[in-house]
Amino acid sequence: MTPAESGVTRHLAVARPTIDASDASDHGELRGGFCQATGAQVPSSVPARPRWSMPSPRRVRWLAAGIILCFLRAPAEAAPNGDPALTTIIKRHRVVLLDRVEVDAEIVRTYQSDLQEDGRWPDVDYKNRDRARWLTVEHLSRVRTMAAAYAHEGHVLKGDRALLGKIHSALDHWLAGRYRNPNWWHNTIGVPVAMSDIATLIDEELADERRKGVIAIIGQCRIGGTGANLMDQAKIVMIKACLDGDAALVSRASKAIANEISVGRREGIKDDWSFHQHGACSQPLSYGRVYLSVLCQVGWLTRGTPYEIPEGKRAIVSQFFLNGIQWMTRGIYTAPSTIDRQVSRSGALRGSGDFRDMLRQWIVADPDHAEELRALLACQDGKAEPLVGFRHFPRSDLTIHHRPGFAFFLKTRSKRVKGTERGNGENLKGQPFLHTGDHYIIVDGTEYTDMPPVWEWQRLPGLTMYDGAPGIAAQAFVGGVGDGASGLTAMDYKRSVGVRKLWAYHGDLIVCLLGGWQDTTGKRGLRTTLDQCRLDGDVRVNVGGRTEPLGTGEHQLKDVRWVLHRGIGYVPLSPAAMSIRLGEVEGSWHSINVSQEKTAVKENVFLCDLLHGASPAASGFLIAPGTTAKGLGKLATEPPYTIIRNDRDVQCVRFDDGVLMAAFHAPGEIALNGEPILSVGKPCLALWSGKELRLADPTNPREDVPANVTWCGMKHSASLPVGGKATILLLGGEARPTRAVVPPEAGAQ
Question: What is the pTM of this model?
Answer without folding.
Answer: 0.87
